[in-house]
Amino acid sequence: MEKHIVILPGDGIGPEVTKGAKGVLETVAERFGHTFTFETHNIGGAAIDKQGTPLPEETVEACRKSDGILLGAVGGPKWDNLPGEQRPEKGLLGIRKQLGLFANLRPVKGFDSLLHSSPLKHEVVAGSDLLIVRELTGGLYFGEPRERRNDGQEVVDTLFYTRKEIERIVEKAFESAQVRSKRLTSVDKANVLESSRMWREVVEEKKNNYPDVEVEHMLVDAAAMKLVTNPGYFDVIVTENMFGDILSDEASVLTGSLGMLPSASVRQDGLGLYEPVHGSAPDIAGQDKANPLATILSAAMMLRYSFGMTEEADEIESAVQSVLNEKYHTADLQVKGGTVVSGSQLAKRVSEQISEKVTTENIMSCYV
Ligand code: NAD
């Protein structure tokens, strides 16, 4: 298969972690006989410095024409005093909006050797493997009007959804559940909110199209509690923008390692932007200390969700697991008895795991 990937390194550790992930994608292409071509563009602070805007038009155009986008991170103290519209974050919000990336996918999976860093007891968090599907472009964060009124004595925000917006995110969640354990929990506040009652109606309608997926409804307060008391209960969670924002951040600390969490923002035709959950970590930028695994796992998500390359994605995820089993890690991770290596060494080791498997398979095939 031929795929064209746009890389947006961004700021801080972004260039380091995307470089590591690109190397892994090249190894996967070689191993599985694909052709991946790459193009790099500026976003965020890097784009402000070079082109005077956090989201240059040529970056948007390149992303539109691509099959998938891999982003590092944006932002840093250098640009903190700029006015809101010119800040690096505007580049990220702008690209999601301009490409219509309405579904945010955040997998949370515990790696055994890192679970001791979780704030939860080992027996509670062990085996957790869930995916939060969050609506990203509607709801309370975008609804109008939102304003202060009556001399600042009143304030209004608007929670607005069209049925179509709810339908497309619910469909995306059912499709995601189909390629996982086929269990979907729809989270809402239907005892209070009219928008949640419509959300429930849509889920009930759509479930007939996915008879293989078991679906349940859960109130957001109950879901927030269950995430910390029994995270292993969940497979796929689907919810609206604000609930998803809060629940995905709650879920992200369960496994105890920010440097391990990938994410995706995708749309119906499969185009997606893939990025680590962490920020640009200016405190360690340029020192080759950054953990590239979240970005490497984001690249695996690109293969799975945008390119339909399940085996290749599985291969990257199992290579990451193997490297952790070998106890190689960057300084941000606490691995008992482990060896601290640089970010570039860690990324290289993941690539080696993938190519070593080829070598072993080739040797084995000589004996068949
Ligand atoms: P951060 O995630 O950048 O850093 C928090 C802490 O985690 C720091 O100590 C950092 O060194 C460490 N860390 C983060 N990622 C790491 C990695 N891959 N390997 C090793 N250590 C890692 O969050 P912050 O400090 O709140 O924000 C720094 C900048 O990043 C800000 O300008 C913020 O606006 C921006 N930010 C960007 C995004 C994004 O681009 N999606 C997300 C969050 C924050």
Description:
There is one protein chain. With 368 residues, this protein is of the alpha/beta class. The chain has two domains: 1-104 and 258-368, Isopropylmalate Dehydrogenase (3-Layer(aba) Sandwich); 119-254, 3-Layer(aba) Sandwich (Isopropylmalate Dehydrogenase). Helix content is 42%, strand content 21%. The protein has helices at 14-32, 45-51, 57-65, 89-98, 122-125, 163-178, 194-206, 220-229, 241-252, 293-306, 310-325, 343-366; strands at 2-10, 35-40, 68-73, 103-109, 129-135, 143-149, 154-158, 183-188, 214-219, 236-239, 262-266, 272-276, 328-329, 339-340. It has a ten-stranded mixed beta sheet, sandwiched between helices. It has a two-stranded antiparallel sheet with strand order 6-7. A two-stranded parallel sheet has the order 13-14. Strand 1, helix 1 and strand 2 form a beta-alpha-beta unit. It is globular.
Keywords:
368 residues, alpha/beta, Isopropylmalate Dehydrogenase, 2 domains, ten-stranded mixed β-sheet, 42% helix, globular, disordered C terminus, binds nicotinamide-adenine-dinucleotide
**SSE order in H/E notation?**
EHEHHEHEHEEEHEHEHEHEEHHEEH
Instruction: Please tell me the overall pLDDT.
Output: 94
Strand percentage: 15-25%
Summing up helix and strand content along with how strands pair, one would put the structural category as alpha/beta
CATH topology of the largest domain: Isopropylmalate Dehydrogenase
